[in-house]
Amino acid sequence: MSEISLPPIIDDGEHYVIPSWMFQYFLPEMRERAEAIQDRILSIVQSVEREIEQLNLLGSALPTMVSLRYIHYRLANTKFDLSTESMLETDMLMSVFAVTYKRLIDGVSGTGVSRKKLPEHLRPVHDFLIGVRNKRFAHNDGHPSISSNVEISFVDERFSVKLNHQMGIHIQGANEWEELVVFLDGLMHSRLQKQLEVLRKKTGYEWIVPGGDTPPWAEDVA
Predict the structure, then answer these.
(1) Are residues 42 and 85 in the same domain?
(2) Which of 90, 128, 173, 211 is 20 to 30 A from 100 in CA distance terms?
(3) Rounded mean pLDDT of the chain?
């Protein structure tokens, strides 16, 4: 006896999702109705392809925003002590925060955030993060937060060399970084809602992005 495999019907908790290839097994009246609905939906989607592409571009920026929120959470909740490991941990999180911030700000195809979009009092914070990313974390280009020098002494008929390195860090991040993250998070979600509203007006149907539970690390900036 041959094995019978069940069709891939998906239950998302509110609806049953059935693939279109199963329509052929419906009764004629049901098949015609299902195909008519499918054609109507396809026609609507094709009429707003440009808006959907913009939504897709915006959606590609949201994971970067999520990463920035999480990195800030980690940085703000990292316990600091006077040890090399603690300093390196903070330096590592600062570097990832600055690099991720730059990636979010640059964006792609209009999804970035220009400096003038930021509140005026947060623009110096932006300048610092871009500068520290470019000159300290992405390149060794002489950022003022780090410095090195060499001490040379001559003892017992030999030269002793001491390599000194000074590194400035923001313990648990600068105070303004949280406000910057909150602002950017709100801006990104506002853009998302505006794009969904554009789709609603053009199609006459509501467009939603179902949300899940807010993780603990995102609650501070939700």
Answers:
(1) no
(2) 211
(3) 84
CB-facing half-sphere around the CA of 3: CA atoms within 13 A = 3
Together in a domain, 132 and 160: yes
Is 80 exceeded by the pLDDT of residue 218? no
CA distance 133 to 94: 9
| Strand boundaries in the chain, DSSP class E | 10-11, 16-17, 146-155, 158-167
Residues 163 and 209 in one domain: yes
With a cut of 70, say whether residue 214 has pLDDT above it: no
142 and 42 assigned to the same domain = no
Mean local confidence (pLDDT), 119-141: 89
Report yes or no: 64 and 90 within 8 Å, Cβ to Cβ. Answer: no
What would you report as the CA-atom Rg of the chain, rounded to the nearest whole angstrom?
27
Tokens of 181: 């993250």
Q: Domain range spanning residue 28?
A: 1-47
Is residue 16 over pLDDT 80? Answer: no
pLDDT for residue 163: 82
Residue 90 lies in a domain: yes
Q: What is the pTM of this model?
A: 0.77
Residue written as token pair 């995102």 = 218
